[in-house]
Amino acid sequence: MTEAAVRTVALTKRYGSLTAVDGLDLEIPKGSVFGLIGPNGAGKSTTFAILASIVSPTAGRAEVAGFDPSSDARSVRRHLGYMPDVLGVYDNLRVDEYLEFFAAAHELRRSSWTGLVDGLLELVGLEVKREAMVESLSRGMKQRLALARALVHDPDVLVLDEPASGLDPRARVELRTLLGELRAMGKTVVISSHILTEMEEMCSHVAIMEAGRLLASGEPAEIGDRLRGGHQVVVRLAGGEVLRYTVTGEEAQRDLLHRLIVDEGLPVVEFREEGAGLEQLFMDVTEGTLQ
Amino acid sequence: MTVFTALPPLNPVLARELKQRMRGRHVWLVVTLYLVILVLILRWVYDAASRDSQFDQFNGGVNLLASAAAGRAIFQWLLFFMLLLVCFIVPGLTAGAISGERERQTLIALQLTLLRPRSIVAGKLLASLAFVVLLIVASLPLLTVPFLVGGVALSEVLKGLVMVLATAVTLACLTLACSALLRRTQAATVVAYGLVLAMVLGTLIVYGAQQVPRRGVGPRPDPWILALNPFAATADVVQGRTQFEGFTTPFGPLRDLLRLSAEDRFSEVFAGPTVAEDLPLRVAPAQVPATAVARAVPAPATTIPGLGTDFGSSSSGSGGFFIDSGNSSVGGQSFAVGALPDDRARLGGVRFWVVALWTWLALAVAAVVLTVRRISLPATRE
């Protein structure tokens, strides 16, 4: 069984009569890029806020790198880097000074600051902006700087709330590459986003939430199999007719299906497995419930 | 290893705030405006003193008493405006300390570092106070003028500056609490200035209202409420015990109010009890009537800077000196030297300014505790 970097058990958060998170059970494997998907108001940001030790849960518990954010927030902060959905930057401060400030705030030794800042700026591609004033950066650059800030103390777990919002296509591609590099470094990355196609490309695991509840969780293909009872195979015949089959089990069954169709003498033009696209999965799972 | 790297690390929030503030465009403007205002006040009081017939008389000689009074007036007016400017500047500097971080969306990032809430609050407070200290240091050259003219003791200047600093600390703590409790800087600024108004004017109004049931008869109520007023407390510290000012000073009315309120000795003060013969006379300029000098017994006098007298630090025995007009005549100006009972304002047997300082300390501590609790995470509610 894979070790979990983040775990929640019956996690619940209520604000008065509103239940933002409702009995959430989640396991995020170590070293994964985990996408939390859901419509607005699904409880994603509240879940992130609990994991980051910003708010306490009403009931249930959470665990980040083995520490409880409610009772041992300091330990969690040593192991978790958090990038909120809205970027905050300080005026009248240079990029390197900005990162040095957070290095000092994380109690890192002064002698390590220069090397650390160099490494982070190289990682996020902001080396040339080292001495630029923070407020002069573009939104994409600020986003990268915020990511560098979240990485200052070399956390094991990164929680990124809507990291791709407001980014242009190029910046999104760069972000995707960057997340890949972070995963290669062994970090667990938890992200939320509304852009499902990107989540599909970035995430190894996803969880779908709606109205504070967890609807599905796991690898996208696995969720699709679970929802549809197996893989979807699309067979297009000459003349435009399309046949759809659900294949359960292994690759051998798909081969068997292929052989049977050919044996029948059907004029096959296309034979393909239809992936359980995140968008389709999302539409299949959610009901558009608002709270 | 340089000296700087060997030093213990500065509070990160303080270091960052100082860097940001000093790079801001308004810093030099505030310092310049502050000094310009003080210089204008200095010039105004000095001109008023120069026009006074006592300041330069006796064939070009200097009347020490008049000169001392002029020095005291300059000092007190400077101090008054320093206090006033601190009351204006500190809330403006501090109101955005926490709410500004919240508005810029930087507070969460700050709270999620390993900095403890008390370190964040300390950094914010010290950054605001560092600027006030800069203003005070910048105004020190102006405070040397009263020394040159005379009439002010170093201890009195120090006490006055301590009161200015204590006021700044208290207001900074209260404003910081406003900034933490209110989401918007605008709201925090309005409430903070409201608090300043309540402390400065509100306390006087409340105290005035407390007098209504007296109908001018009977003992006045203790001025407990005035312990919140920074001007009243400063007046108690710097006013000294002279009745002769020569010029109107801003702290005079407050000092009178406190003195009269404490034990309602209006008639006693102005009737003047019998002069005690063994009181130490700390000033005996040539122009003082011979009778007055003759009655004074030489006593170890404190070092007097410039041509000044040390009215403010006289505290020995049960009495002290005051100089009042109307008894003797020197060069057309009347003087008399008499003794006063110890009429310094007290509350519950404790000096008024001490009570005031303790009150401010309690307020500041409560405000800091509130601020720390407010920015502590995880929050149980939003």
Commentary on this structure:
Chain A folds into two domains: 4-218, 3-Layer(aba) Sandwich (Rossmann fold); 224-285, no CATH class. In chain A, the strands form three sheets. Chain A has a six-stranded mixed sheet, sandwiched between helices. In chain A, strands 2-1-4 form a three-stranded antiparallel sheet, with helices on one face. The mean pLDDT of chain A is 86. Helix content of chain A is 35%, strand content 28%. Chain A has 291 residues and is α/β, with parallel strands linked by helices. The longest helix of chain A is centred in the middle third of the chain and has 16 residues, at 169-184. Chain B has 382 residues and is mainly α. Chain B has a domain at 9-184 and 356-374. In chain B, the strands form three sheets. A two-stranded antiparallel ribbon of chain B has the order 1-2. A two-stranded antiparallel ribbon of chain B has the order 3-4. The radius of gyration of chain B is 24 Å and the shape is globular. The A-B interface holds A 15, 50, 52-56, 69-70, 73-74, 77-78, 80, 82, 84, 86-93, 97, 101-102, 104-107, 110-111, 146, 149, 153 and B 5, 9, 12-13, 15-16, 19-21, 23-24, 101, 104-115, 377-382.
- Strands ordered across the widest β-sheet of chain B: 1-2
Compute the average pLDDT of chain A. Answer: 86
Query: Can you count the helices of chain A?
Result: 10
Largest interface: A-B, 36 and 30 residues
Order of strands side by side in the largest beta sheet of chain A? Answer: 5-6-7-3-8-9
- Low-confidence residue ranges of chain B: 265-341
Q: Which percent band covers the strand fraction of chain A?
A: 25-35%
Computed over alpha carbons, the radius of gyration of chain A is 22 Å
Which series of helices and strands of chain B comes N to C? HHHEEHHHHHHHHHHEEEEH
Look at the structure and give the mean pLDDT of chain B: 75
Largest sheet of chain A: 6 strands, mixed
Percent range for β-strand residues of chain B: 5-15%
General form of chain A: globular
